[in-house]
Design a protein that fits this description.
1 helix; two-stranded antiparallel sheet; 2 domains; 97 residues; elongated; alpha+beta; single chain
Length: 97
């Protein structure tokens, strides 16, 4: 997980107060590239990721002309979530008895 402050909140993306003690963690989540998607109202089959707002808006307008009674929304990716569960190795110690 990348440890960065959530802008203006004083908290890290890992939910700890900023600066968090884990901000130098060995495993970092790469930054996402911004993308936009076009979604038709009451439909869930959105699959194309547009690399610019202008491209997504042009696609929404094209689809709206083809389907005059349907609204098309332009959605922006603001982030992503992923569960990470690292495997931890624990050394066994001999018990003196």
């Amino acid at each position: 997980m990348a440890h960065r402050e959530i802008e203006g909140t004083g908290r890290c993306w890992c939910a700890r107060p900023w600066p968090c003690s884990a901000r130098n963690a060995a495993v970092a989540m790469p930054l996402l590239e911004m993308f936009w998607m076009v979604k038709a109202e009451n439909r869930s089959d959105t699959t194309v990721q547009h690399r610019s707002l202008q491209s997504a808006r042009a696609e929404a307008e094209r689809l709206a002309r083809e389907h005059p009674n349907v609204r098309f929304f332009v959605l922006q990716c603001v982030g992503a979530a992923r569960v990470e569960q690292p495997t931890i190795w624990m050394e066994a110690r001999a018990i003196p008895f």
